Amino acid sequence: MATADPERPGFLLPLLLLAGFRTLIDDLHAELAGQGHPDLRPVHGFVLQAVGVDGTTASELGQRLGVSKQAAGKTVDRLVALGYLERVDDPADARRKLVRMTEKGVDGLRRSAVLFDALRKRWAATLGEERVAAMEDDLRAVTPPNFFRLDVPGWFGG
């Protein structure tokens, strides 16, 4: 059964939301590349957030991201090679290795936060502050309170 408004079919809403997300993320990564982080990819942001300030194990990281330990380990290997993460002995358990952010990883996250603020201001300059704030309020009204979930990579992967 078709939607009542052929100009606004139901399937368009998630596509527009995804396009908005993609636009912000693409713009963010273009800016990050110009600020010394050309190798960071969208999935890396989720990984760095999941590692957090205290670090984590590869198994815990996989659980947080909703991916296998092997998939998490492969991404960690890449981020270690790029200098964003490091593996260190766990001071609480010598049998385990912790994955921690390096200063480069912290810098990438710090710059991302600043750039997201700038990108929001850019949208507000185009749409108006009131409309951006209303959009944020409306999205909060229809999303769960724990909307920021790190398992998006696993969710997209099936």
Automatic annotation (TrEMBL):
Family matches, as PROSITE patterns: HTH_MARR_2
Keywords: DNA-binding
Record has DNA-binding as a keyword: yes
Organism domain of life: Bacteria
UniProt keyword annotation of DNA-binding present: yes
One GO term (biological process): response to stress
Family matches, as SUPFAM superfamilies: Winged helix' DNA-binding domain (SSF46785)
InterPro entries: HTH_MarR-typ, MarR/SlyA-like, WH-like_DNA-bd_sf, WH_DNA-bd_sf
Residue ranges of domain HTH marR-type in the record: 1-144
MF terms in GO: DNA binding; DNA-binding transcription factor activity
The protein's name in its UniProt record: DNA-binding transcriptional regulator, MarR family
Source organism (scientific name): Micromonospora halophytica
Source species taxonomy: Bacteria, Bacillati, Actinomycetota, Actinomycetes, Micromonosporales
